[in-house]
Amino acid sequence: MRALLQRVTHASVTVEGETIGAIDHGLLILVCAMQDDTRENAAKLATKISKLRIFQDDAGKMNRSLTDVAGSALIVSQFTLAADTSRGNRPGFSAAAPDQGRALYEYFIQQIASHNIPVQTGAFGADMSVALLNDGPVTISMEI
Question: Model's pTM, two decimal places?
Answer without folding.
Answer: 0.95
